[in-house]
Write a structure and sequence with these properties.
The chain is an alpha+beta fold and 157 residues long. The protein folds into two domains: 53 residues; 80 residues, Arc Repressor Mutant, subunit A, CATH 1.10.10.10. The chain contains five helices and five strands, in the order E-E-E-H-H-E-H-H-E-H. A three-stranded antiparallel sheet has the order 1-2-3, with helices on one face. A two-stranded parallel sheet has the order 4-5. Helix 3 crosses helix 4. The radius of gyration is 15 Å and the shape is globular. The N and C termini lie far apart (40 Å). The model has no long low-confidence stretch (mean pLDDT 95). The structure holds a DNA duplex (13 and 13 nucleotides).
DNA sequence: TGTTTTGGGGCTG
DNA sequence: CAGCCCCAAAACA
């Protein structure tokens, strides 16, 4: 089972990919027209996203497609333990995992499901860090706006 | 402000 | 396997 839909959000247009009844990928660069989810999971996720944008305290509870190396999976799982309104540095998460900041950054950079797997809650000790594979531009702006939505000022960066 | 250390991952032979 | 390169970091001089 495979479906893709595009939804609008206060932050950006979101393109959601669903495979094997799991969320598989999220993209922010869709210029395609908005389309409606067809599956139960798609509808549920759309609802959760709307709830999140209404209030950041609403987090996500959806199955995600197993992907990546063992280490990447460990990092991505750890990300889901960070609640809205909290941020960790790459180094702090690395310490929890017995790894290094550089390696954690590598894994975050390859997170296929940004926002839902909240890699935006990881920042550099000095600076904003990257988002969705980029280190500047539009995607960093989205990261800043997500963090702002979750209660942080625009001082990061 | 450099420079070095660092660990995961991809690529090549 | 080794060797080499790339990185969303951080420590250090």
């Amino acid at each position: 089972m495979h479906e893709t839909f595009v939804m609008d959000s206060p932050i950006y247009k979101l393109k959601i990919h669903i495979e094997q009844n799991c969320v598989a990928k999220v993209e922010f660069n869709s210029d395609e027209p908005v389309s409606l989810p067809a599956t139960d999971l798609g509808k549920k996720l759309q609802q959760q996203l709307n709830d999140y944008f209404r209030s950041p305290a609403n987090s996500f509870a959806v199955p995600v497609l197993p992907q990546g190396t063992d280490f990447q999976a460990r990092v991505w799982l750890a990300l889901t333990d960070i609640p809205p309104g909290k941020v960790l540095t790459y180094g702090e998460l690395a310490e929890k995992l017995g790894s290094s900041a550089r390696a954690v950054g590598n894994a975050c950079r390859r997170n296929p499901i940004p926002l839902i797997v909240p890699c935006h809650r990881i920042v550099a000790k000095s600076g904003i860090g990257g988002f969705a594979g980029d280190t500047d531009g539009r995607l960093i702006d989205i990261k800043l706006r997500l963090l702002e939505h979750e209660g942080f000022g625009l001082k990061l960066g």
